[in-house]
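Long-time lurker, first post. I've been practising inverse folding by hand and with some scripts of my own, and I keep getting stuck on stretches where the structure tokens seem ambiguous. Below is the full token string for one chain I'm working on. Before anyone asks, I'm not after the true native sequence, just a reasonable design that respects the backbone. If someone could post their per-position residues I'd love to compare against what I wrote down in my notebook.
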């Protein structure tokens, strides 16, 4: 990896477990896995079109089915090509905003949210992994609605099923992931975990 490429990838926020992971590294064992992998790869290859449409993807399924792998591969693929792309876990997003409410903090809540809105692609991992409090729903809505209004692409992942996730993040947030005008799509990763032998999420 060249120095510039390495810096760009590390600036995405992707953790060490998935740093350097690509679509080619993703293990495909069924037609459904092949389909979703192709969708994720095409999403990045045709990103200029995706940006014009403001298309979103939401990956739902049990832990270990490859949701985070594909999302991180997308982020890194775009970063290498010079796009601004950011990976963040939902819990980290909430923590950063809540910490900004304290006196003497370096970042204001509005600044944290703006950073999440401004990047070309945002990945929010592990949606619904928290308590679903009104404060968390409001934070998430500010980010999601901000990107939606600006037609900014977003990929979300969750270990929850559709009904449970909707209750945790709120109907308004879930509605944004289903916008047909933007050609947004939801995929269910309903195959067995890959974590036996190889660590994936």
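-- Answer (accepted) --
I ran through it position by position. Result:
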């Amino acid at each position: 990896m060249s120095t510039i490429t390495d810096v760009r990838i590390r600036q995405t926020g992707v953790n060490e477990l998935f740093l350097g992971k690509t679509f080619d590294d993703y293990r495909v064992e069924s037609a459904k896995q092949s389909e979703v992998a192709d969708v994720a790869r095409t999403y990045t290859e045709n990103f200029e079109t995706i940006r014009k449409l403001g298309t979103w993807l939401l990956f739902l399924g049990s832990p270990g089915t490859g949701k985070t792998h594909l999302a991180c591969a997308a982020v890194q693929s775009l970063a290498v090509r010079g796009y601004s792309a950011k990976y963040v876990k939902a819990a980290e997003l909430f923590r950063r905003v809540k910490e900004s409410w304290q006196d003497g903090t370096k970042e204001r809540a509005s600044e944290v949210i703006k950073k999440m809105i401004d990047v070309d692609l945002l990945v929010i991992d592990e949606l619904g992994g928290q308590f679903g409090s009104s404060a968390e729903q409001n934070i998430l809505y500010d980010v999601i609605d901000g990107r939606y209004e600006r037609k900014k692409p977003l990929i979300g992942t969750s270990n929850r099923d559709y009904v449970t996730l909707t209750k945790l993040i709120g109907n308004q947030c879930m509605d944004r992931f289903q916008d047909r005008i933007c050609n947004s799509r939801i995929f269910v990763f309903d195959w067995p975990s890959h974590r036996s032998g190889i660590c994936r999420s």
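A couple of notes from the structure itself: The chain is about 45% helix and 15% strand. The CA atoms of residues 125 and 194 lie 18 Å apart. Happy to go over any region you disagree with.
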